[in-house]
Design goal:
This protein is mainly β. It contains no helices and 10 strands. Strands 1-10-9-4-3-2 form a 6-stranded antiparallel beta sheet, with no helix packed on it. Strands 5-6-7-8 form a 4-stranded antiparallel beta sheet, with no helix packed on it. The chain binds FE2/S2 (inorganic) cluster (FES). The site of FE2/S2 (inorganic) cluster has 10 residues, from loops.
C-alpha cells in the first residue's frame, strides 16, 4: 500500500488495522472532549467523539430527524447531544438516552495508532 491510497492521509502511516478501516483523522483534529464529522470513502458520514484521548465513532446522522450529530456537543460521560432537538445518545452503546431520540444510533469500530484515528465498519 502507498501513503497516497484513498483513505490514508499522506505521511501518517499506511498499516490498516483490518479490512474496511481507513484513517480519517488525527487526534489533534478533534477538540478536547469534542466532536468531528468526517466522511469515509464509502460515503458514510461518521461523527468522531473524543473523550480525553479516547475516540469513539457514531453515525453522523441523528436517528430522530437525520441532523448531523457532529454539530451537537459532548455533554457527559460519553453522551452526545443532538443540536436540533436535544436528543442524546450514549456513544459507548449507541442507545438513545434522551427523547425525542428513541432509536439507537449506529456505532463504528475505531482503532487508534499513535495519533492516527482509523474507522472501520458499523458495529452490530
Ligand atoms: S434531529 Fe436530533 S433530536 Fe431531532
Amino acid at each position: 500500500m502507498s501513503g497516497t491510497e484513498q483513505g490514508v492521509l499522506p505521511g501518517l502511516g499506511d498499516e490498516r488495522p483490518g479490512p474496511g478501516f481507513e484513517q480519517v483523522a488525527v487526534l489533534g483534529d478533534i477538540g478536547a472532549n469534542g466532536l468531528l464529522g468526517v466522511r469515509k470513502s464509502t460515503g458514510e458520514r461518521v461523527c468522531l467523539v473524543r473523550i480525553g484521548t479516547v475516540v469513539r465513532a457514531i453515525a453522523d446522522n441523528c436517528t430522530h430527524r437525520d441532523f448531523a450529530m457532529s454539530e451537537g456537543e459532548l455533554v457527559d460521560g460519553g453522551v452526545v447531544e443532538c443540536a436540533w432537538h436535544g436528543g442524546q445518545f450514549d456513544s459507548a452503546t449507541g442507545k438513545a438516552v434522551q427523547a425525542p431520540a428513541v432509536k439507537e444510533i449506529v456505532r463504528y469500530a475505531v482503532v487508534q495508532r499513535g495519533d492516527a484515528i482509523w474507522v472501520g465498519g458499523p458495529i452490530a
